[in-house]
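Q: Given only this backbone (363 positions), what sequence would you predict?
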């Protein structure tokens, strides 16, 4: 049985190792995506007392790129950051428009995939290969979960705990390499498996959600639409956001999504700053013509299954526990590279190194 588990562990590591290294390293960087964006922000802004209206700022983005439609608006995370309107074309290619929120001046535009965050996310999630790349990443996530399970089974500490955590620094390099793989694997196995599971769940979200709701015998909330009325004119973003704020007065705006079609709702993503990472989000879908609240999803009042579903992203990216969790995730994200290299050396030594020794003995 152990030989079968060892073979599974070895060949999964060989075939999925390079992809897991790429996904792990980019994941480590994405843990600090918000901090990197703020640090590398090319458009420093001098804070002023009054912000322009959302309508004026969205119109400025539309004027700068009349060939695109507004997809998402991200409010400045701090007074010295720009107002960002993500625009989209007919091929679902995104472009960020950066605007000074005090003057309305368009500071610059950049294809989303060319921003640092967009570049890292595209590599991490799609390997620069679109949907096919996303499927490969999903399979790699399942592979990483299998590596974690088989690695725990193979861990030498089951025979004697002390041996399982022993690193023989003064031994031959082959033994040291083996110990580093053995100890590094067990120390990172739990968190890597958790990251792998949540990552695979997000890639295969439809069957994952269906399975979760089947187990809990619950149904997903229905999709909502705006009722198109004759001669109806959509309300401006400021009026709709005013309604959302009145509905959740203790929440802050994070992002909002303008309606893309006459039937689409106006979506608002809000956050409760005093809540934990697992309960801070709220989504409001508003009827774009009347401002009626079509759907309100408050993480503080979510059902058990919705809490589980909502937690997948938070757990995957380490957005809980503060800087300690972020540092831990960043370190563990590099672990696949170290485990792949040490594991490959073990495989190479046992396969080709042994053949070389036998050949030398014969000669």
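A: Predicted residues:
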């Amino acid at each position: 049985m152990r030989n079968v588990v060892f073979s599974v562990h070895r060949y999964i590591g060989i075939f999925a190792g390079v992809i897991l290294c790429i996904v792990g390293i980019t994941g480590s960087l994405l843990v600090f995506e918000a901090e990197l964006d703020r640090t590398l922000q090319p458009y420093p802004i001098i804070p002023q007392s009054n912000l322009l209206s959302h309508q004026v700022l969205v119109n400025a983005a539309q004027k700068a790129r009349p060939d695109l439609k507004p997809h998402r608006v991200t409010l400045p995370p701090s007074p010295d950051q720009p107002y960002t309107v993500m625009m989209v074309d007919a091929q679902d290619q995104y472009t960020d428009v950066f605007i000074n929120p005090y003057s309305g001046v368009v500071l610059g535009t950049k294809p989303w995939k060319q921003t640092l965050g967009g570049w890292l996310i595209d590599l991490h999630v799609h390997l620069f290969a679109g949907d096919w790349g996303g499927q490969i990443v999903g399979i790699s996530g399942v592979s990483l979960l299998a590596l974690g399970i088989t690695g725990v089974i193979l861990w030498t500490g089951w025979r004697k705990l002390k041996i399982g955590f022993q690193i023989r620094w003064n031994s031959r390099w082959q033994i040291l390499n083996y110990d580093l793989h053995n100890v590094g694997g067990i120390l990172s196995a739990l968190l890597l498996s958790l990251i792998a599971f949540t990552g695979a769940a997000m890639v295969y979200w439809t069957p994952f959600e269906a399975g979760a709701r089947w187990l809990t015998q619950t149904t997903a909330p229905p999709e909502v639409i705006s009722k198109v009325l004759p001669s109806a004119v959509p309300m401006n973003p400021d009026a709709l956001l005013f309604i959302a704020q009145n509905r959740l007065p203790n929440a802050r705006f994070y992002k909002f999504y303008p309606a893309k079609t006459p039937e689409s709702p106006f979506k608002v993503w809000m956050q409760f700053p005093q809540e934990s990472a697992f309960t801070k989000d709220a989504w409001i879908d508003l009827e774009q013509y009347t401002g009626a609240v079509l759907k309100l999803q408050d993480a503080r009042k979510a059902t058990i299954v919705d809490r589980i579903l909502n937690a997948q992203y938070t757990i995957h990216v380490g957005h809980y526990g503060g800087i300690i969790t972020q540092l831990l995730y960043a370190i563990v994200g590099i672990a696949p590279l170290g485990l792949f290299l040490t594991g490959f050396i073990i495989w190479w030594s046992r396969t080709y190194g042994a053949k070389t020794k036998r050949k030398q003995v014969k000669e």
